[in-house]
Amino acid sequence: MIAFGACAVVGQAYALPRVASLNLCTDQLLLELAQPEQIVGLTPLARDCWSAVLCEQAQQAPVMRPTAENIVALHPDVVLGGVYTAAVAMQAARESGAQVLAIPPAKSLAGIPVQIMQVATAIGVPERGHALVQAFERRLAALTQPRSQTDPTAAVYAANGFVTHAGTLPDDVLAHAGFRNYSTIIGQHRSAHFPMEVLIAHPPDLLILDRSGRGNSLAQSLLDHPALQEAFAGKRHLNIPARLWLCGLPQTLDSIALLKAAHRAENGPERQIP
Q1: What is the mean pLDDT of the chain?
Q2: 53 within 8 A of 28, measured Cβ to Cβ
């Protein structure tokens, strides 16, 4: 009886914490790292395949609206979230005694391993975190292109005509794939609407359409504007799903692989990349 009781205490001492996520990016880091039984709630966006690369995996996990009421009811040990969203729910988690970890948006590939380890440590699986980081760093090293002042230019054109500027995760992805960011070359240093007419008049070497939806919204429909299609007909362009770099994840490296294929096309026979 004494031995059995001791084993029970040890088992409880090493029980992994129950974890809730209030943010799309922490949803996916949690799916990458946690044991399934640790997850008490993800946001509904985790199951949206336009937004989340791990949407299929998320079908097997519980989802919840990121509200204070849900956090209080679930009473998780650890709550993961962003720095700009679900502030009331995050505060409720703190007041209920949960460990709260706010993860800012990843602005570079170098920041991804840091965030992986922050989450892995908080949820009690540092070994899984180290393994994921090592795999990420090996693949990043294999994919990274040497940089040059003569690298081709690429414009990331998103809904509402926004172009990706310096200091963002997509900008860092472009650099690692061997491209210079078009917005930096033309002096666009902040996130703002960029006139399609200027893009057409002074085209980049590669046009990247950053698709974050099915294209049925007015904002998304700009990416399929007839004038844009005509101007870039026969020129190299690439569709990259926004979910690949919306969050800093191991899968973000897939966008480098897509861009490297476009880089090779730049030096070979002209072809269009779907």
Answers
A1: 88
A2: yes
The Cα 156–Cα 77 span in angstroms is: 40
Helix (H, G, I), strand (E, B) or coil at 48: coil
Query: Is 208 strand, coil or helix?
Result: strand
Euclidean distance between CA atoms 63 and 42, whole angstroms: 4
For the cut 70, the answer to whether the pLDDT of residue 92 exceeds it is yes
Q: How far apart are CA 165 and CA 35, in angstroms?
A: 37
Mean local confidence (pLDDT), 25-40: 98
- Is the pLDDT at 274 greater than 80? The verdict is no
41: β partners:
20
Contacts of 135 (CB under 8 A, 6+ apart): 250
| pLDDT for 268 | 53
The answer to whether 265 and 273 have CB atoms below 8 angstroms apart is: yes
Domains along the chain with CATH numbers: 16-141 (3.40.50.1980), 146-265 (3.40.50.1980)
- Residue 90: phi and psi, rounded to 5, are -65, -40
Sign, Cα dihedral of 250, 252, 254, 259: negative
